[in-house]
Each structure stands twice: as C-alpha cells, then as structure tokens.
Amino acid sequence: MDRKLVKRKGDFKWVVERTGKMRVEGVIFASEELIAEMDDMVVTQVRNVATLPGIVQGSLAMPDAHWGYGFPIGGVAAFDPDDGGVVSAGGVGFDIACGVRTVHTGMVRDDIQGKEYDIAEGLFRAIPAGVGSTGPIRLSKAGIDEVLRGGAKWAVEKGYGSPDDLHFIEENGCIAGADPSHVSDHAKDRQQEQMGTLGSGNHYLEVQEVVEVFDKSSAEAFGIHAGDIKISIHCGSRGLGHQIATDYQKKMVSTAGKYGIELPDRQLACSPIDSDMGASYLGAMRSAINCAMANRQILTHLLRQAMARLTPSADIRVLYDVSHNTCKAEEHEVNGRRKRLFVHRKGATRAFAPGDRSLPAEYRHSGQPVLIGGSMGTASYILVGIDSSEKLAFSSACHGAGRTMSRKQAMQKWRGEEITGRLKADGIVIRSRSMRGIAEEAPGAYKDVSEVVEATERAGLAVKVAKLVPLVCVKG
Fold first, then answer.
1. DSSP class of residue 395?
2. What distance in Å separates the CA atoms of residue 426 and residue 415, rounded to the nearest whole number?
3. Which of 61, 22, 28, 44 lies closest to 267 in space, CA to CA?
C-alpha cells in the first residue's frame, strides 16, 4: 500500500488523498492493524471508484475490505442521478443480494445439548447445498418471472412460510422496480432448479449460540438473550444473479464510450442511472434481489420443516433479513440537503439508524439489526445501526470478516479433513459436500471478525449488540 496516498485522520479513519481524475477523496475505515494487512489493491480500487461520474462525498471502504471485481469488497459509493451519476454491475457484484437471514428458535443451549450431530445430519439432508445444487422447486420461465417480481412475498403466497416473516425482511420481502424482461433467458434457465439452495463458497446455514450481549436495550428489542440458539442463513441469488452481472458487465463495457465514460478499469463498467442501459440493469438487478429474498424464504421453510422433526420445541421466527450486495435508491444528506442517491454496497451491510420509517415498528426505536457473518468456525455478530453512520458512510457497515488470502492460497495451506477435525475438537460440527470447499473457507483465510467488528463500532458505523458462536454449520 502506498503510504504517500493514505493519511490517517483518526484512530479508525484513513483518507486516500484526491489526485488525478478522482472526483472525491477515498476513505477507509479500519484499525491500524487492519489497514496494515489490507492488500494494496484496496487503495487502487478505492481511487478508481472515486473517478466515476456523479459520485458524492467519498469512495468508501469498510474495515473488512479486500480486493474485489472493480469495486473492493467492502466498498460503498453513492451516486447522484442529477449529476450524471452511474450504476455499476461491478459495484454490486456477481452474487447480487447475497445476504444474511437470522432466525429465532425459541431454544437455549440446554435444549440441543448432545443433539448437535443429529441436527447437523438432519439439516444437511434437508438443505440443498454445493456447486450446482438443485432445490425442491422446478419452475417454468413464467414461474421464474413470478419469483423475480414477487420475491419473498411470492414464496409466502406459494406456502413457503408465514406472512409474519415478511415484516422482518428489508423491503418487506419484495423490492419495487424489478423487471424480469431485462433478465436474459440464460440467467432464468440457470435458476429454474436452484430456488431453495445454499450454493457453495462462503455460503452456509449455521446453528449458533448467543454467548455475549453488549447492548442490552437493542438486544431486548431484537429478542436476543445470552444462551439463546439462533440460526443464520447466508446465501444470495445463485446462478441467476451471477449471470445478470456477467451479462451487464459486458454490455456496460461496450456502451461506456457511447455515454462518454472513461473507465480506469474495465471491471468498473457502468452506465448513467437515467440511461436506457442503466434502467435495464436496475430492473434486472432488482429482479435478482427478489430472487435472493425468495431463496432465503424457501430455505427458512425447509429449515422449519427440518427443525420440527429434529427438535419439536423449536419455534422458528425471523429476526431480520438484510442483503450486502446491492444498489439501492435512498435519501441521504449531501452538503446540507436531502437527496435521492443510488448507494452501491458491495460486501457492505445497510445500517439504518433509529427512527427510519422503513424499519419494522419493533425496531424503529432501536435501529436496524446489522447481521455480520463470521468465517467458518468463528464468531458472528449482530450490530445495530446508529445516527453517525448516515454522515460517515450512507448508513453502511461491514458485512463479515473479509478474506486475507485467496481460495487457491487457502487450498495450498490446508486440507478440508484437517479443518473439520480441528473444528470438531472445538465443539463445532461441520457438514459439507466438499472437503475442497472447507479448505477454501478455512477460518485462517479470513481476518479476525472480532477485530473487524470492533473497528466498525469504533469508527461510528454501527454498535455491537451480541456475539454468537457456531455449534453446527452446513456448507456446500
């Protein structure tokens, strides 16, 4: 990392000076330790994003930032449509609307003590996971279009869960403006058998115990107590989202010149928000958001069925569901005025403060639950949105630990059997269809999630509510 470009502006804030074609400065939120271990490309990508038309305030990176496709993973940038602002496929990412849903179980540790292996096996059989995995639903193209328009609401209407679930999902489970006509047939074909599947990579379903509560008031509002058993689902829009990103990345590269956009990196291909290409991408991307929310809703239904068989005392209720790979139209203050901006969060979680009217009434006084997944075998956290995050980062926070090495590097260093045995010794049961996948996702390939979360809180982006540790993890 070129230290000449990065200046410390606080204990947890670093500014990348505005140079060359940068329209705004870059800002990285991190501790001294985290900034030291970030790969050099984070600064390069922060600088590149800062050159895009219509960007406001700054090109931002969260404490878990690492090198991504075009935008850094952990990147946040907001664009003003009234000032030529753009939307970028690379700024959302390939796993559109990848996110976390955490659910209550109504159980405590004693309720599942000694049953962890049975639960792991039962969930592994019930939850389709792995590369190319297929789910219990087979959809026609017309059926796919219904999913893309209806999101989790479609899933509930089809019998996958309860209307009460929708209340605790961002956008109430269905984002407006989705337009399946802008999604390619190839993308739809890839999704016909993938609804209700986890996928592979860092996606998981995890049974967790709340081991520490930090903010008692927010924890009470969220229904969190020490000793509770929660379950988290981490996945996204599967093959459909990946194909949409692939399709539009190519289209945006080929049309950038038409709109007079100079790209510092082809991976930053983008189009003006108010252009035909921008509108087309937004319609397709919102379709993928609905796909992801429907996918997590179906998985919740499968989870309920499985837990009813495994532990009849379980009462599965949604705590919250929020995505961390999106572009959303939101109102934020810029230079003293409220403006409608298009906020890209790529590997960054929305973190709305108390009083936001889009939040469930139960959480409006406390603020939004911010769900932070850990790496396999390490802690996860629940945070809460706060007022300061609005001015600092358009109400955004980190999304996880963030990688420190590539999957290839992880495979060269660890074996899946070794990781499984080590986690077993720590009391964590892992079930996966791929020993290679376990090696790729080894905890040592990630930053320390506790350090990332601490930096997120100290930077003023969100406040810690609870720490959860894994007991059972199902992976692809």
1. S
2. 17
3. 44
More confident residue, 432 or 101: 101
Annotated catalytic residues are: 399
Task: Supply the Cα-derived Rg of the chain in whole angstroms.
Answer: 21
Q: What is the pLDDT of residue 2?
A: 61
Whether residue 136 has pLDDT greater than 90 = no
Q: What does the angle CA 118 – CA 119 – CA 122 come to, to the nearest 5 degrees?
A: 85
Mean pLDDT of 54-79: 97
DSSP code of 166?
Answer: H
Distance CA 435, CA 368 (A): 36
The mean pLDDT of 196-211, rounded to a whole number, is: 94
Eight-state DSSP code of residue 39: -
Say whether domain 6-404+446-475 belongs to CATH 3.30.420.10. Answer: no
Domain boundaries, the chain: 6-404+446-475
- pLDDT confidence tier of residue 365, bands split at 50, 70 and 90: very high
Listed in sequence order, the residues at least 6 apart from 444 whose beta carbon sits closer than 8 Å to its beta carbon are 410, 413, 414
Concatenating the DSSP letter of every residue in 281-341 gives HHHHHHHHHHHHHHHHHHHHHHHHHHHHHH-TT---EEEEEEESEEEEEEEEEETTEEEEE
In angstroms, the CA 97 to CA 115 distance is 33
Q: What is this structure's pTM?
A: 0.96
Half-sphere exposure of 60 (CA within 13 A, CB side): 33
pLDDT surpassing 60 at residue 23: yes
Rounded to whole angstroms, the Cα distance separating 464 from 374 reads 14
Task: Give the dihedral sign, CA 319/322/328/334.
Answer: positive
